[in-house]
Design goal:
mainly alpha, globular
Length: 96
């Protein structure tokens, strides 16, 4: 039987990054691993993942959830360190 941990390892993202995708898309974590796998294979997929995590950070800050925003920021930092190609394109900043 394939576990969530197996799927996370297969998709190329960390658990925190997958959880951010699941939160953003309002889908179960297992579905988010498939989405992550698909996005990371697309031409601008890493940029899309970055944008999703940034949107989650903004949403957490807008509702006053600083702790969750910090957790997401840590996930974003790790993601950008592992996937420097995600820096391309507009929307790199947290606030316009």
């Amino acid at each position: 039987m394939i576990t969530l941990e197996d799927c996370i390892a297969f998709c190329g993202l960390t658990e925190e990054e997958v959880l951010a995708l699941a939160e953003h898309e309002h889908v179960p974590e297992m579905v988010a691993t498939g989405l992550a796998n698909q996005l990371m294979k697309q031409r601008h997929g890493p940029e899309k993942v970055r944008a999703i995590i940034v949107e989650d950070i903004r949403a957490a800050l807008d509702r006053g959830d600083r702790r969750h925003a910090q957790e997401l920021l840590a996930a974003l930092r790790h993601f950008l360190g592992a996937h420097p190609d995600a820096y391309r394109g507009p929307g790199r900043e947290l606030r316009p």
